[in-house]
Structure formats: C-alpha cells, structure tokens
Design a protein that fits this description.
alpha+beta; 19 strands
C-alpha cells in the first residue's frame, strides 16, 4: 500500500467491497432532526406568547423554524423506514481502482428483491468537496465537476437478492480521487435509486477513481463488451428529452434555439421561497431594532436573490446560428442585450456546470472567443444529453469542424 497506490489505503477499497453509507446517513438524519427541533420548538414556546401579549405579531414568522423541523423529522423517519426495508447494500468492484480514461465497473447487491417498473437509475459523479470553519460554524460545500447517468431496466436476481450491474466510462480529462486534504477533496460518488411502492430504494457509495498507467489507453470494443457496454452505451446518443421546453427550429442553413421563461419551475419556486424567507428576515431585523449593518448586508444579498428569482421566472435567451456567426439575446422578457459573434471569432463551444440545486447540476452553454472571453448562449439546462445535443446543432449550423 505505497504512496503510488492510494486506492489500497482504505480496507473496503482494497477488498473491492464497499458498503453504502446507509447507517451513517441514518445517524446524521436523526442527529440533525433532533438538534434542530430541540431549538425550533423550545425557543418559540417562550418567545411567541410574550411577544403576542406585547402586540408583536411579526414574531409569528418564527413558526417557519418548527415547520422546517417537521420536514427534517419526516426525512429521518423515511431514512429509518428505508434502512429497515433494504438494509445495507454492497458494491462489489470488478477491478480496483476505476481508471481515469477507462472504466469503473462492478455490481450493486441489495439484500432484498426489488421490483421497479422504471428500473434502476445510476449516477456517477466527480465532486469537489470543500469544508470551511470549525465547530458550529463548520460548512461543507460540494460542487459537481462531472456527472454521468445510466438506466438499468433488467437487474439480476441472485439467491433472493437483487444485483444491479454497474459500468461507466470515465473521461480522460477527469480528476482523480484525492482526499489527502479533507477540507479540499475530490470525491467520486456512485448513487443508485429505484421507484418502488412505499419507500423508494436508494444507496450511495464513495468509489476509488485514479489515474494509472492504463489511463493513456482507451478501452477496446472487446473490453466494453465484457463490461456489458457497447460503444454506443458508453456514450449514449445525443437527444432532446421529450418534455423539454427548449424550442429548436432548424432550417437549411439556420438554427434557432429559444430558452423560454420559467423553464425550470422547481428551481423558480425554490428560489422564490428562499427569497421570501430572506425578505421576511430583513423586515424582522428592522422591526426588532437590529444594528443597521445587519439589515444592509442582508438587503444586499437579498437583491441578488431577487434578481435570481426574477430571472428564473422571466429570463429568456434566443440564439440564432448561421454560417456567418451567432446572435445571442438574453434578458428579461423582451428586454435584453444582443451579442453577435462572427464565426471566425469562435474558438470553441462547450458546456459547463453553472449551478446546483441539491445534488442536481445545471449546465450552461459557453461560446469561447478567440481572445479567451466567453459568451453564454443558454443557462440552467437540466439534462446533460440535451446540452450536448444543442451544442451539436449549433456547431452544425455554424459549419464548424
């Protein structure tokens, strides 16, 4: 287990047998729920009656915290039911480690029979995890650097257990696992889920992915076939999802892409709710005579939240691609700035993760100019296949190689 083989430092990785983080997640869920509710229900019990007797009805806003506490309690109960129903799933790796530029493969074994009409959804993610502060001020942030999804419709049944095959092709430019600094680490996660009547099945694993001597050699068709993949499976065909709200009109030498307002309703509702709570907090600070610095700081951040909420509901982008160049108009409804990028000034068109909502990354389309500056030609696209499909349409209309 030398320094050149960090995937052997962890006993579970070295044994190629990784248990899902079900127990740890269960403990964390109950710890957070109990801690939050011990404060969220106790403090208002003493503050609200006294404030109402003094005519301070604004204090009722504090009831939002017990409501959040009930949500956390429901989350913990659901985690408990999932644990009782499915137990601890195990990922058995075919080879250790998963190799950058090649494959990660294995099988997830659940101890019960799982029947799902929609099959199993597998997600492999490369995550940049940063931890700041300490004690009560400790904050953990995770940024998805790369993510790929696969669906398995026909799992195997082995002695009363469910076995789901896992096979992903890892890009050659991906970052490898690196936990030498726990406060600034690169983590690879495998998540698996299935919609089941009652409590859905879900499990997640931290997997070893490293750059080795094999990284410079891509997998052959025979190796892909042995892993249960074909060249097409390793990189599924690009497509636009059936229910996508992004409109694409293709002519002989012209392609128009329109990103309408309120495309992502879940995100729009979420950011609006957060903005409302934040605004109520600002009024509470003013009402109870907080030092002026706090309402000012909260207010400045509130302006950013307000702009994000307005953009989520009303922001549009219109992209027109022709052999001569690209026209991009982005703004709120009919108002916005129009940019023209001549085809000779285009160095590259690529996608990049722009934001996250929970664990879901949203992708942006970026046009890189010859001088290195970038222009966004579409933001907050949920599906990775769709953003790649849109870029393919743009490149074709521009007649680029």
């Amino acid at each position: 287990c030398g320094p050149d083989e960090p995937w052997l430092w962890r006993p579970d990785w070295a044994a190629a047998r990784i248990e899902c983080a079900t127990r740890g997640g269960l403990i964390a869920a109950w710890s957070v729920a109990l801690f939050w509710n011990s404060i969220a229900f106790t403090v208002p019990l003493f503050i609200i009656p006294q404030a109402l007797r003094e005519g301070e009805k604004f204090v009722l806003l504090a009831l939002i915290f017990p409501i959040i506490g009930l949500g956390l309690l429901a989350w913990a109960v659901r985690a408990t039911l999932r644990y009782r129903k499915y137990g601890v799933s195990v990922l058995r790796l075919a080879a250790v480690p998963g190799v950058v530029g090649r494959l990660l493969q294995g099988v997830v074994i659940a101890r019960t029979l799982i029947h799902s009409h929609d099959g199993f959804q597998l997600t492999l993610s490369c995550v940049h995890r940063t931890v700041t502060g300490s004690g009560d001020d400790r904050k953990t942030r995770e940024e998805v650097l790369w993510q790929e999804k696969r669906a398995i419709t026909r799992p195997h049944v082995v002695e009363g257990a469910t076995a789901v095959p896992v096979a992903f092709r890892i890009p050659a430019d991906a970052q490898q696992s690196d936990a030498t600094d726990p406060s600034d680490a690169i983590i690879w996660k495998l998540e698996i889920s299935a919609a089941v009547p009652g409590v859905d099945y879900a499990a997640n694993f931290e997997v070893p992915v490293y750059r080795t001597e094999e990284s410079g050699t891509p997998p052959t068709d025979a190796e892909l076939a042995a892993a249960g993949l074909t060249a097409e499976d390793a990189k599924p065909p690009l497509r636009q999802p059936r229910h996508s709200r992004i409109r694409v009109n293709e002519g002989i030498r012209r392609t128009e892409i329109y990103f309408p307002a309120a495309r992502n309703l879940g995100f729009a509702f979420g950011i609006t709710l957060f903005f409302s709570i934040w605004t109520a907090t600002i009024f509470a600070l003013l009402k109870f005579g907080a030092p002026p610095l706090f309402p000012i700081l909260f207010g400045l951040f509130g302006l950013l939240l307000g702009y994000a909420a307005v953009s989520a509901w009303l922001g549009t982008t219109h992209v027109v691609c022709e052999p001569t160049g690209v026209w991009v108009k982005s703004g709120v409804l009919m108002f916005g700035r129009i940019r023209h990028i001549p085809v000779d000034d285009i160095n590259d068109i690529r996608h990049k993760i722009g934001m996250h909502v929970g664990k879901r990354p949203y992708y942006d389309i970026q046009i890189e100019r010859v001088d290195g500056k970038t222009v966004h030609a579409g933001r907050a696209i949920r599906d990775k296949r769709e953003v790649e499909w849109l870029i393919e349409r743009m490149v074709r209309a521009l007649e680029l190689e």
